[in-house]
Automatic annotation (TrEMBL):
<dbReference type="GO" id="GO:0005975">
    <property type="term" value="P:carbohydrate metabolic process"/>
</dbReference>
<comment type="pathway">
    <text>Carbohydrate biosynthesis; D-glycero-D-manno-heptose 7-phosphate biosynthesis; D-glycero-alpha-D-manno-heptose 7-phosphate and D-glycero-beta-D-manno-heptose 7-phosphate from sedoheptulose 7-phosphate: step 1/1.</text>
</comment>
<feature type="domain" description="SIS">
    <location>
        <begin position="35"/>
        <end position="194"/>
    </location>
</feature>
<feature type="binding site">
    <location>
        <begin position="92"/>
        <end position="93"/>
    </location>
    <ligand>
        <name>substrate</name>
    </ligand>
</feature>
<feature type="binding site">
    <location>
        <position position="59"/>
    </location>
    <ligand>
        <name>Zn(2+)</name>
    </ligand>
</feature>
<keyword id="KW-0479">Metal-binding</keyword>
<dbReference type="InterPro" id="IPR050099">
    <property type="entry name" value="SIS_GmhA/DiaA_subfam"/>
</dbReference>
<dbReference type="GO" id="GO:0008270">
    <property type="term" value="F:zinc ion binding"/>
</dbReference>
<dbReference type="InterPro" id="IPR046348">
    <property type="entry name" value="SIS_dom_sf"/>
</dbReference>
<dbReference type="GO" id="GO:0005737">
    <property type="term" value="C:cytoplasm"/>
</dbReference>
<feature type="binding site">
    <location>
        <position position="63"/>
    </location>
    <ligand>
        <name>substrate</name>
    </ligand>
</feature>
<dbReference type="InterPro" id="IPR035461">
    <property type="entry name" value="GmhA/DiaA"/>
</dbReference>
<dbReference type="GO" id="GO:0008968">
    <property type="term" value="F:D-sedoheptulose 7-phosphate isomerase activity"/>
</dbReference>
<dbReference type="InterPro" id="IPR001347">
    <property type="entry name" value="SIS_dom"/>
</dbReference>
<keyword id="KW-0963">Cytoplasm</keyword>
<dbReference type="GO" id="GO:0097367">
    <property type="term" value="F:carbohydrate derivative binding"/>
</dbReference>
<feature type="binding site">
    <location>
        <begin position="50"/>
        <end position="52"/>
    </location>
    <ligand>
        <name>substrate</name>
    </ligand>
</feature>
Length: 197
């Protein structure tokens, strides 16, 4: 296959997923409400995922602690994918399946939200992270593919990207994350305007 023909295939498949993304509106609204409740109530976001989804988890957290598009106060979010000492200690002394859940047990409280990103919906370490969130009384949001997966069992809200392919599921995930960031900006930019008034 030439790169040009791959490009056409990818554009077609990306567009097919994109065309169905608006079906997620009710759950996007629910996820945003949950995140805003947490952030307004003094809670934080803990994000996790593997491979490309680890990058998404970090991207999401950085949009909050740094900035997304508009000026607002920094917001508390931690990607559980970045501390190589914690990841290697937990992976080595316990199991790779525990690398996120053990951090959730250490860091999550009732006001927090754990966001698990997995295209298969079944990565054991993400499933356990969401289970640990529930056990600690925190909320859980899952981003996965159209087939759902075991994460659904523990998530308060599941955003199922309308694709069964990893690449396009990831592409939809980053779009959804940006939509959530835009909505968080909306809420906290208003807070800033209210403070200045
Ligand atoms: O980015 C990619 C493929 O596009 C890979 O790194 C991919 O994220 C990894 O294979 C992950 O381990 C897949 O895990 P998951 O999405 O099923 O939870
Ligand atoms: Zn990738």
């Amino acid at each position: 296959m030439s790169a040009a023909s791959n490009l056409l295939t990818y554009v077609e498949r990306h567009r097919a997923a994109l065309d169905r993304l608006a079906d997620l509106s009710p759950n996007v609204e629910r996820a945003a409400t949950l995140l805003l409740e947490a952030l307004r109530g003094g809670g934080k976001l803990l994000t996790c995922g593997n491979g490309g989804s680890a990058a998404d988890a970090q991207h999401f957290a950085a949009e909050l602690t740094g900035r997304y598009r508009r000026e607002r106060r920094p917001l508390p979010a931690i990607a559980l994918t970045t501390d190589s000492s914690a990841l290697t200690c937990i992976g080595n002394d316990y199991a790779f399946a525990d690398v996120f859940s053990r951090q959730v047990e250490a860091l999550a409280g009732e006001r927090d939200v754990v966001v698990g990103i997995t295209t298969s919906g079944n990565s054991e370490n993400v499933v356990r992270a969401l289970a640990a969130a529930k056990a600690r009384g925190a909320r859980a949001v899952a981003l996965c593919g159209e087939r759902g997966g075991r994460v659904e069992e523990f998530a308060d809200v599941t955003l199922k990207a309308p694709s069964a392919l990893t690449a396009h599921t990831q592409e939809m995930h980053i779009l959804l994350i940006h939509v959530l960031c835009e909505t968080i900006d909306d809420a906290f930019v208003d807070e800033r305007i209210a403070e200045q008034a």
